[in-house]
Amino acid sequence: MRQTFVVSYDISDPKRLRKVYRLMRGWGDHIQLSVFRCELNARELVELRSRLAFVINHVEDQVLFVDVGPVEGRGGTSIKAIGKVYSSPERRAIVV
After folding, report:
1. Would residue 83 count as lying in a domain?
2. Quick count: other Cβ atoms within 10 Å of Cβ 27?
3. Structurally, how many domains does the chain consist of?
4. I want to staple 63 with a disulfide (CB 3.0 to 4.6 A). Which of 9, 19, 55, 81 is the partner?
């Protein structure tokens, strides 16, 4: 089952920050500075955490994972905004 996660990071070094941003682009939707919305299954969550652990400095940096629920349930509607409207990204298949 896929879960929706809000992943937020605070990286102290600009070089590591760029690496984390590039890594995260492949895993979710960039919704704000240092914040991504990711739909992950259990295996993908472990893989993402492992890849991030390899990039960050465990003393200076922090990455937070907030589980907001199943993609087909609460996870799809739990992000609310004030100001600019937030809309969940449209999901569609892309054939390459």
Report:
1. no
2. 19
3. 1
4. 9
Provide the residue-wise pLDDT of the chain in tens; the chain has 96 residues: 889 999 999 999 999 999 999 999 989 999 889 999 999 999 999 999 999 999 999 999 999 999 988 887 665 566 665 556 656 656 555 565
For the chain, where are the alpha helices, taking DSSP H only? 14-25, 42-55
CATH (domain of 15): 3.30.70.240
Distance CA 86, CA 6 (A): 14
User: Looking at the domain assignment, is residue 64 inside a domain?
Assistant: yes
Strand ranges for 1-96 from DSSP E: 3-10, 29-32, 35-40, 62-70
